[in-house]
């Protein structure tokens, strides 16, 4: 389209500010320095020489929002809104799109630079600039529109960013960090120097180093490209010495820049999203498990189903890894959980990440809002989950072209009929096999609940024929003789439409069953346990010692001590093993307490609890009115 002696870089400039009488939106195409083209409008496009466009940009800047960004304002002036800093994002893919969505809630202006005119972020960004994010000239021009420069993809021109930083441009995270991350071998060296546990690795740049790697690590062996490697691209497996040359050739040969890793046998792949503020503060999100399809992230389960020891180790490694880098923003730390229980760092991404998509619906602060907070210098937000469980499912292209779009539409249509499901579509114009086209997040009260809904979505079962709701409360008792008392709890839970299970578990006669029940309760979706016991009344305390779930004990009335022995047994639990209790035989109150606990995280249930309290109040007031009007004799003898 543009005739010039040097490759053009192009920008999109919205005409709603600064440039009068231009069709909106207009596209500005920068020619090379030797271009003689002046400003010419053709249809809805503007073409200009660099000198002319600089003149126009200067004129526009006098009236534009960039003039009012935090980097240009007087320190004593009032900030209108959360922040007036214009955030420039290198890259306009789905991550940039979701950054723009998060920014819109706080009216933070985000401008994007991407080679595609209709990139996923282009329709949502405040201004979209068309140009390559690895083109130094394009990035240099783009930086003039920003108060702070950040990335949504690490394959950018880090050298230009370092030069811009020297000239005073605010880049977050720091270009030095991006440069380390871009070369995966240097990344490994950096983290190993900071004591981060990693799989063994070795640079491989000639046949001699390949021979050394084979002798050191044996086979199978993972051969990796140092640069431009993601979503499984840039990896090759050599299962034996004879396959090593073909693996090297498949990655472009030694000149491409390669390294090798000792083969790591792992049981799970984990990830931790880490936020780092401009003040150096670091916050970690809950550990998640990532499940891959053809080396592409396909499913993310939050939180990861791993022991507390593994969680702590994962968070510690992620915290230390990000603390060793420079700059603010959100980072994704990918980890291996090995067969022998070690947690090893795989790699780090200096940006929002696929493993953090779920945070939009499942956490108090999404990774996208957090990234904006961090790079601008706002306080970091709460990283904890606001829902007990979540699953993110990537919508990957199943087929090319229209057939692929049809299949994706059917899946999303199914998801929209499921409670707790949220659909994100990236609006990419071209469907390719295994391309990330969108994602679906499912949230719910338990891991089993969201997994059930995922199965429902993928198996295309009918919602009407769905299995019963996952029980949230378990009612257990030591003997069927306790059932006449414990049935009151079941009746209350039915009244409030709380799904529950009821069974017999004896602490003395079926200890193995009690152990199995208590250890599996949380995984089955149980959130509260109501345990009835008489006599020695060991059941509530034993169950409480086996699970972190709250346990409410119901003392059962017995013939010998009328239930007092049961009450005293339950309330005399040792320090550190709490068991709540109610009056002797009052299973109804135990259920009401369970309902109130559940209602703190369920608005619909909260409304039912409030209605129940109002009904109790009305009942008492009616009785009082009847007594006052008719007197006590008539009240007792109607």
TrEMBL record:
The protein's Enzyme Commission number: 4.1.1.21
Coiled coil: none
SUPFAM superfamilies, per database record: Glutathione synthetase ATP-binding domain-like, N5-CAIR mutase (phosphoribosylaminoimidazole carboxylase, PurE), PreATP-grasp domain, Rudiment single hybrid motif
Reactions it catalyzes: 5-amino-1-(5-phospho-D-ribosyl)imidazole-4-carboxylate + H(+) = 5-amino-1-(5-phospho-beta-D-ribosyl)imidazole + CO2
Pathway: Purine metabolism; IMP biosynthesis via de novo pathway; 5-amino-1-(5-phospho-D-ribosyl)imidazole-4-carboxylate from 5-amino-1-(5-phospho-D-ribosyl)imidazole (carboxylase route): step 1/1
Enzyme class: lyase
Top-level taxon: Eukaryota
ATP-binding keyword on record: yes
Annotated ATP-grasp domain residues: 188-376
Gene Ontology MF terms: ATP binding; metal ion binding; phosphoribosylaminoimidazole carboxylase activity
Protein name in UniProt: phosphoribosylaminoimidazole carboxylase
Pfam families named in the record: AIRC (PF00731), ATP-grasp (PF02222), PurK_C (PF17769), RS_preATP-grasp-like (PF22660)
InterPro entries given in the database record: Ade2_fungi/plant, ATP-grasp, ATP-grasp_carboxylate-amine, ATP_grasp_subdomain_1, PreATP-grasp_dom_sf, PurE_ClassI, PurE_dom, PurK
Family the UniProt entry places it in: In the C-terminal section; belongs to the AIR carboxylase family. Class I subfamily.
Keywords: ATP-binding, Decarboxylase, Lyase, Nucleotide-binding, Purine biosynthesis
Native source species: Dendrobium nobile
HAMAP family: PurE_classI (MF_01929), PurK (MF_01928)
GO cellular component: chloroplast
GO BP terms in the entry: 'de novo' IMP biosynthetic process
PANTHER family for the chain: PHOSPHORIBOSYLAMINOIMIDAZOLE CARBOXYLASE, PURINE BIOSYNTHESIS PROTEIN 6/7, PUR6/7
């Amino acid at each position: 389209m543009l005739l010039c002696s040097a490759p053009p870089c192009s920008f999109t400039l919205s005409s709603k500010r600064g440039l009068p009488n231009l069709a909106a939106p207009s596209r500005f195409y920068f020619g090379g320095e030797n271009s003689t083209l002046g400003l010419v409008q053709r249809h809805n496009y503007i073409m200009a020489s660099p000198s002319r466009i600089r003149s126009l940009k200067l004129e526009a800047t006098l009236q534009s929002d960039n003039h009012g960004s935090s980097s240009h304002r007087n320190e004593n002036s009032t900030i209108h809104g959360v922040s007036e800093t214009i955030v420039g994002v290198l890259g306009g893919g789905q991550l940039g799109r979701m950054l723009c969505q998060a920014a819109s809630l706080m009216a933070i202006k985000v401008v994007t630079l991407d080679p595609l005119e209709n990139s996923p972020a282009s329709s949502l960004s405040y201004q979209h600039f068309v140009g390559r994010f690895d083109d130094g000239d394009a990035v240099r021009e783009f930086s003039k529109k920003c108060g702070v420069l950040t990335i949504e993809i690490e394959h950018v021109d880090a050298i230009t960013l370092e030069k811009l930083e020297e000239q005073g441009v605010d880049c977050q995270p720091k270009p030095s960090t991006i440069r380390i991350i871009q070369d995966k071998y240097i990344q490994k060296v950096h983290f190993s120097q900071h004591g981060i546990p990693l799989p063994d690795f070795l640079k491989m740049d000639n046949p001699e180093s390949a021979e050394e790697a084979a002798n050191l690590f044996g086979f199978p062996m993972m051969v990796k490209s140092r640069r431009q490697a993601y979503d499984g691209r840039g990896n090759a497996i050599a299962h034996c010495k004879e396959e090593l040359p073909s693996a090297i050739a498949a990655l472009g040969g030694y000149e491409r820049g390669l390294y090798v890793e000792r083969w790591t046998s792992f049981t799970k792949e984990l990830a931790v999203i880490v936020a780092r503020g401009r003040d150096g503060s670091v916050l970690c999100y809950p550990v998640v498990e990532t499940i891959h399809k053809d080396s592409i992230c396909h499913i993310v389960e939050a939180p990861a189903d791993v022991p507390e020891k593994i969680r702590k180790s994962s968070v510690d490694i992620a915290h230390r890894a990000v603390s060793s880098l420079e700059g603010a923003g959100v980072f994704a730390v990918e980890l291996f959980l090995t067969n022998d229980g070690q947690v090893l760092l795989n790699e780090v991404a200096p940006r929002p990440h696929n493993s953090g998509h779920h945070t939009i619906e499942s956490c108090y602060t999404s990774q996208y809002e957090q990234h904006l907070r961090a790079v601008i210098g706002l306080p970091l937000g709460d990283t904890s989950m606001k829902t007990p469980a979540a699953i993110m499912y990537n919508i990957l292209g199943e087929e090319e072209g229209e057939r692929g779009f049809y299949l994706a539409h059917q899946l999303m249509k199914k998801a929209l009929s499921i409670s707790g499901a949220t659909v994100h579509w990236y609006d990419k114009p071209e469907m390719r096999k295994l391309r990330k086209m969108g994602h679906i997040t499912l949230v719910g009260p338990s891991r089993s609940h969201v997994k059930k809904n995922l199965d429902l979505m993928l198996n295309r079962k009918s919602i009407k024929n769905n299995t019963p709701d996952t029980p949230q409360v378990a009612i257990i008792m030591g003997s069927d003789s306790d059932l006449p008392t414990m049935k009151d709890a079941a009746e209350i839970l039915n009244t409030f439409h709380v799904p529950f299970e009821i069974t017999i578990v004896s602490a003395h006669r079926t200890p193995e069953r009690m152990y199995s029940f208590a250890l599996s309760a949380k995984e089955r979706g149980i959130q509260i346990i109501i345990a009835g016991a008489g006599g020695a009344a060991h059941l509530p305390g034993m169950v409480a010692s086996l699970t972190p779930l709250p346990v409410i004990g119901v003392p059962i009335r017995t013939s010998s001590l009328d239930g007092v022995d049961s009450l005293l047994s339950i309330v005399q639990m040792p320090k550190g093993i709490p068991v709540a209790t109610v009056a002797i035989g009052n299973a109804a109150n135990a259920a009401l307490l369970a309902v109130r606990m559940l209602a703190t995280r369920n608005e619909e249930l909260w409304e039912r609890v409030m209605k129940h309290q109002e009904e109790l109040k009305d009942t008492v007031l009616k009785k009082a009115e009847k007594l006052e009007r008719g007197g006590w004799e008539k009240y007792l003898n109607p």
